[in-house]
Amino acid sequence: MALRPILLHPDPRLRRRAEPVAAVTPEIGRLAEDMLATMYDAPGVGLAAPQVGVGRRLLVMDCVKNPEAPRRPMVLVNPEIAWASDERRTYEEGCLSLPDQYAEIERPARVRVRWTGLDGRPAEEEFDGLWATCVQHEIDHLDGRLFIDYLSALRRQLITRRMEKLKRDRARA
Ligand code: NI
After folding, report:
1. Within a domain: residue 63?
2. Which one of 78, 99, 135, 173 has the lowest number of neighbouring Cβ atoms within 10 Å?
3. Which residues are known catalytic residues?
4. What is the CATH number of the domain that holds 147?
5. Beta pairing partners, 93
6. Going residue by residue through the chain (173 aa), what tens digit of pLDDT does each one get?
7. Ligand 1 centre and the CA of 119: distance in Å?
């Protein structure tokens, strides 16, 4: 198990459509373990493989907010949204690839998602609340989409400029 560096926006690897995972191999299992450890360490509630520079359709998440409650680490291989509610919900989103940047984003309030588990078996679940927001945000990453893409061009450019400065400062440090 190893922590992996998280790519920061802007980075072309965050903008590519990720390829399906052909088979759940031990290597995919190790990637998922590393991603969960990286996500908990950050800390964050979700992480998609492109964020650690791997262009494969895999994401991890755990949206249990209560620190007293047991963790619920989830690994979704080749996830797909099978259904989305007409009802929408606004949530203030952030992203580990855009530290300290937040924006209110509106998305379907509930989604039904199908994926392959680490055991290679198909799985399906309906998500609501933070889980629904998170799974949609992470699937967006697999399509090269970031939450700032839902904002006005002006606001997106403002955030991108802030991120470019952050990356320059970090490179100098
Ligand atoms: Ni993100």
Report:
1. yes
2. 173
3. 138
4. 3.90.45.10
5. 103
6. 899 999 999 999 999 999 999 999 999 999 999 999 999 999 999 999 999 999 999 999 999 988 899 999 999 999 999 999 999 999 999 999 999 999 999 999 999 999 999 999 999 999 999 999 999 999 999 999 999 999 999 999 999 999 999 999 999 98
7. 25
